[in-house]
């Protein structure tokens, strides 16, 4: 039973949030994890989610937005079903990260932070994702793909399009 | 804390341990520049302008976060530091438009000063500047993002200072931006807005021109105005506001109100009314010619001479034929002390009537009577800043007395003061309170009982269904406090008020204050705009100094309601209204005044003025000099700032009417060399009664005033005659506040059942009695607040 009436989240998520605020010395420490979970649940952090999180943590919506806007991994607009995040940090850049990014842009027909018209893919250029040893790398939702070439990217996209890709959460 | 000794730029300085280096240097006259540091707010260390070299510490240190220490050796101005500050400025100017020639802050800008000082206008950056359009956050707050240097002063001011938290910081790094609490996507017009108290403190705190004021922006430059520090005409807190004045073809218009010199009783603070609601003075609706109603009932403009002649003749005629008792006088809450005093003296000695009253917004008579015979029991506004504990009964300072609320919050934040609140409403200040007692409706009487130790009415005190122990605990906590200021809302009056005070006066360390609504509500009562009280709450029936001086009838006159009852019965021959709107305020039937000769001194065609036979166009508080007393009894000087061709001060008009009536002017306003020259000799050619005023002036080393239009002449008389108004001239003339506590000597206080005529005005943040209606900015803010509420309800419904 959620402590918030008319929660916008699923009962499981609501229960998770109820617990989340109790496990830190201060309530607002739960803010960042809660935003991440909310984003995974809804695909993005909606205004309604901001309102509910503010209510749960007992802070102002403005405070939630201050934090939300700080982190580039938090979105306020829906992403595609598969969010393609291409790393262009040093190691990946040296190993052709921009080539991969350009290829993705061309292949999907969208730019940075954009979503394909069918809503299946969205593209993002991101900072280091910690896969330098196997650069260039990208992350689709929470799944890593490394040692990429444009050909491998084509195969991956086809795989996801066919619904065979992993959808880790 | 013990003092420590340290060296700054070769000077040996001493300061209490724990003092911040920047403050210690400031006290010693060494300026360390800083943008983000603001005294009284939390430390930020965001701007890096205050860097100094401290020996034995690696790297440059920020003076705004470093406490002084014993033996510390500091350099504040070396080539190394200048270089560091210059580099900081270059970064700050990275996206800054350098549009000083059009910016409101130009000439008053801390960034501009520093750029001139350190010469950082040349930039190494070749990238285009990141420009954003200005945003209108509310009718009074505009935001120019490119000018912002992200010092966070506004964010802290709004959150910590105002307890509003309407501003935040969003995004990161060079794209960081100050964001208001209503984001664009949540707003009906798709533009970001602030939902707040519209105090404008963020604009005051802003070191640059990023936040600008809706009333002032792009109107003029700071050096093109005269700056006059005077007292705000709105609530009873008595804030000093500095008005920027500019000459126009018909006088001088007020262009800006702000608090830049911070020298007043209000320190850093000014609310929206003090800052923006001066615009009624510039209103085109003002009456600027005397109007006299002709035989066909139409108000026609006439010359001043004709109008005054008419009023003088008519009032004299009515006084002589129908008697002074058939004349009523109503004074205002925004008159100066001198005007209020002169008005009641004019009424009592020239019109020969005690039928004089004003709109009483708090029961100062009961307050003064309850405190009679005590000393040091009346609290000053200054006590609210410092007292370790404050007990607030009733009232809503956040909305009705914003400075009081600011001082309470600052006291809690900076001095860990403990606030105890008992109120029938859940007022906002309870967020800062140590204890809040939610009193049941109409429960203040029971609360007074509880405080005096009578538990029998506990049942009607607490909200239904709550544990009565809460109230007992509340009282126990309060009793344990050694020093308490008791702040009383204007809804407490008469017996309840006396009960609260009388019990408290028996305890040590208790001080009291009664809140009221307008700038001189307290002064109007102190100066005796009352049918039964002479100035200083001297009962009219007793043989006091004042009564002897005035040599007047000792039976009380008609009060406000009785005056209008008399008018209804056709017994009122004339009504003289000075700066008040009783017709609207007390719902007077216009027909009642049909057979009364009504003279109104007013700025606008109010409900009362519309019924007048003669309207005399009056100057407002910003257009005259004198003194006012705030609700705590702090007296301050009022200075003439604005001017409007055609209007006259109420003081001048009263004097001129008295003159036209053939009154003895020297008896009314003591000016010139006095009535008698004998200094009280009893024998010889010049024997006679001593001119007490002349004797007093001589004794106090004061010169006689030269003109009957000099309010200081009346101030001298107030000083001489009104109990409790023993002023310090230097304190007054240097623009400082001084605390007075007029209370009639206890042997004169009579316990009588006075009729309760107190009608608190309950003006909030965006209203100010009749005057508020003529402020376009207050109207805008009301509309803005209403649309915010409507939007919020819409969202809630969705």
Automatic annotation (TrEMBL), chain A:
Gene3D superfamilies: Glutaredoxin (3.40.30.10), NADH-quinone oxidoreductase subunit E (1.10.10.1590)
Entry keywords, A to Z: 2Fe-2S, Iron, Iron-sulfur, Metal-binding
InterPro entries named in the record: NuoE-like, NuoE_dom, NuoE_N, Thioredoxin-like_sf
Binding site for [2Fe-2S] cluster: 87, 92, 128, 132
One GO MF term: 2 iron, 2 sulfur cluster binding
Cofactor: [2Fe-2S] cluster
Cofactor note: Binds 1 [2Fe-2S] cluster.
PANTHER family documented for this protein: NADH DEHYDROGENASE [UBIQUINONE] FLAVOPROTEIN 2, MITOCHONDRIAL (PTHR10371:SF3), NADH DEHYDROGENASE UBIQUINONE FLAVOPROTEIN 2, MITOCHONDRIAL (PTHR10371)
NCBIfam families membership: nuoE_fam (TIGR01958)
Family to which this protein belongs: Belongs to the complex I 24 kDa subunit family.
Protein name as annotated: NADH-quinone oxidoreductase subunit E
Annotated organism of origin: Granulicella aggregans
Automatic annotation (TrEMBL), chain B:
Keywords for the protein's UniProt record, in alphabetical order: 2Fe-2S, 4Fe-4S, Iron, Iron-sulfur, Membrane, Metal-binding, NAD, Quinone, Repeat, Translocase
Gene3D superfamilies in alphabetical order: 3.10.20.740, 3.30.70.20, 3.40.50.740, ADC-like domains (2.20.25.90), Dimethylsulfoxide Reductase, domain 2 (3.40.228.10)
CDD domains named among the record's database cross-references: fer2
Pfam families: Fer2_4, Fer4_Nqo3, Molybdop_Fe4S4, Molybdopterin, NADH-G_4Fe-4S_3
GO BP terms: ATP synthesis coupled electron transport
PANTHER family referenced in this protein's UniProt entry, alphabetically: NADH-QUINONE OXIDOREDUCTASE SUBUNIT G, RESPIRATORY NITRATE REDUCTASE
This protein's name: NADH-quinone oxidoreductase subunit G
The organism's taxonomic lineage, starting at the top: Bacteria, Pseudomonadati, Acidobacteriota, Terriglobia, Terriglobales
């Amino acid at each position: 039973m959620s402590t918030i009436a008319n929660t916008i989240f699923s009962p499981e998520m609501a229960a998770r949030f109820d617990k989340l605020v109790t496990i830190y010395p201060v309530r607002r420490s739960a803010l960042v994890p809660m935003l991440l979970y909310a984003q995974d649940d809804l695909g993005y952090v909606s205004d309604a989610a901001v309102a509910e999180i503010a209510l749960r943590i007992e802070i102002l919506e403005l405070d939630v937005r201050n934090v939300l806007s700080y982190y580039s991994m938090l979105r306020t607009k829906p992403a595609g079903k598969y969010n393609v995040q291409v790393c262009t940090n040093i190691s990946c850049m040296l190993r052709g990260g921009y080539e991969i990014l350009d290829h993705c842009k061309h292949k999907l027909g969208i730019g940075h932070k954009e979503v394909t018209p069918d809503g299946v893919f969205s593209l993002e250029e991101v900072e280091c994702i910690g896969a330098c040893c196997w650069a260039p790398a990208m992350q689709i939702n929470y799944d890593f793909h490394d040692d990429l070439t444009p050909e491998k990217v084509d195969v991956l996209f086809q795989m996801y399009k066919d619904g065979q890709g992993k959808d880790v959460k | 804390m013990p003092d420590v000794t340290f060296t700054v730029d070769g000077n040996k300085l001493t300061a209490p341990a724990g003092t911040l280096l920047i403050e210690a240097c400031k006290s010693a006259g060494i300026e360390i520049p800083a943008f983000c540091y603001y005294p009284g707010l939390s430390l930020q260390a965001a701007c890096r302008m205050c860097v100094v070299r401290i020996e034995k510490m690696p790297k440059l240190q920020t003076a705004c976060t470093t406490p002084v220490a014993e033996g510390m050796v500091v350099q504040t101005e070396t080539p190394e530091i200048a270089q560091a500050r210059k580099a900081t400025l270059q970064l700050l100017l990275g996206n800054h438009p350098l549009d000083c020639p059009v910016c409101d802050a130009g000439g008053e800008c801390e960034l501009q000063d520093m750029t001139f000082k350190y010469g950082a206008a040349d930039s190494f950056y070749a990238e285009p500047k990141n420009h954003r359009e200005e945003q209108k956050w509310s009718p009074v707050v505009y935001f120019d993002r490119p000018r912002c240097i992200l010092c966070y002063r506004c964010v802290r001011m709004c959150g910590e200072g105002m307890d509003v938290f309407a501003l935040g910081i969003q995004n990161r790094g060079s794209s960081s931006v100050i964001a208001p609490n209503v984001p664009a996507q949540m707003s009906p017009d798709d533009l970001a807005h602030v939902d707040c108290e519209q105090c404008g403190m963020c604009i005051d705190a802003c070191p640059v021109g990023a936040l600008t004021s809706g009333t002032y922006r792009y109107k003029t430059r700071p050096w093109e105005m005269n700056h006059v520090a005077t007292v705000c005409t709105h609530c009873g807190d008595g804030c000093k506001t500095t008005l920027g004045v500019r000459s126009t073809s018909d006088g001088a218009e007020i262009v800006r109100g702000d608090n830049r010199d911070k020298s007043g009783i209000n320190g850093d603070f000014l609310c929206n009314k003090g800052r923006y609601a001066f615009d009624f003075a510039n209103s085109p609706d003002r009456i600027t010619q005397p109007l006299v109603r002709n035989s066909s009932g139409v108000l026609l403009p006439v010359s001043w001479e004709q109008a005054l002649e008419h009023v003088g003749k008519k009032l004299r005629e009515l006084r002589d034929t129908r008697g002074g008792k058939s004349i009523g006088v109503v004074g205002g809450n925004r008159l100066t002390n001198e005007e209020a005093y002169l008005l009641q003296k004019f009424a009592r000695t020239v019109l020969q009537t005690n039928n004089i009253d004003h709109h009483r917004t708090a029961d100062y008579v009961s307050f003064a009577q309850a405190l009679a015979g005590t000393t040091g029991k009346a609290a000053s506004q200054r006590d609210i800043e410092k007292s370790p504990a404050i007990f607030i009964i009733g009232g809503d300072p956040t909305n009705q007395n914003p400075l009081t609320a600011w001082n309470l919050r600052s006291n809690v934040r900076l001095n860990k003061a403990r606030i105890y609140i008992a109120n029938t409403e859940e007022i906002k200040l309870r967020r800062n309170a140590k204890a809040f007692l939610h009193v049941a409706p109409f429960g203040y009487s029971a609360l007074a009982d509880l405080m005096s130790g009578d538990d029998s009415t506990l049942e009607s005190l607490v909200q239904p269904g709550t544990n009565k122990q809460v109230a007992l605990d509340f009282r126990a906590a309060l009793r344990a406090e050694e020093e308490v200021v008791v702040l009383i809302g204007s809804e407490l009056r008469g017996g309840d008020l006396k009960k609260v005070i009388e019990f408290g006066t028996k305890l040590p360390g208790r001080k009291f204050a009664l809140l009221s609504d307008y700038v001189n509500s307290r002064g109007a009562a102190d100066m005796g705009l009352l049918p039964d009280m002479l100035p200083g709450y001297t009962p009219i029936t007793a043989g006091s100094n004042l009564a002897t001086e005035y040599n007047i009838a000792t039976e009380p006159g008609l009060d406000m309601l009785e005056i209008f009852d008399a008018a209804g019965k056709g017994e009122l021959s004339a009504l003289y209204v000075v700066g008040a709107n009783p017709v609207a305020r007390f719902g007077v039937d216009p027909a009642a005044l049909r057979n009364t000769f009504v003279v109104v001194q007013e700025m606008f065609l109010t409900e009362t003025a519309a019924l007048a036979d003669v309207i005399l166009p009056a100057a407002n508080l910003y257009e005259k000099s004198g003194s006012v007393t705030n609700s705590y009894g702090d007296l301050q000087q009022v200075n003439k700032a604005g001017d409007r061709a055609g209007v006259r001060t109420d003081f001048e008009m009263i004097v001129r009417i008295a003159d036209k009536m053939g009154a003895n002017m020297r008896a009314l306003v003591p000016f010139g060399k006095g009535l008698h020259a004998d200094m009280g000799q009893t024998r010889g050619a010049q024997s006679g009664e001593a001119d007490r005023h002349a004797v007093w002036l001589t004794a106090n080393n004061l010169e006689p005033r030269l003109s009957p239009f000099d309010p200081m002449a009346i101030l001298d008389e107030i000083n001489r005659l009104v109990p409790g108004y023993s002023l310090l001239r230097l304190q007054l003339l240097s623009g400082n506040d001084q605390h007075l506590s007029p209370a009639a000597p206890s042997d004169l206080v009579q316990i009588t059942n006075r009729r309760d005529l107190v009608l608190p005005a309950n003006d909030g943040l965006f209203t100010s009695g009749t005057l508020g209606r003529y402020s376009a900015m207050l109207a805008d803010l009301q509309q803005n607040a209403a649309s915010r509420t409507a939007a919020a309800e819409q969202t809630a419904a969705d």
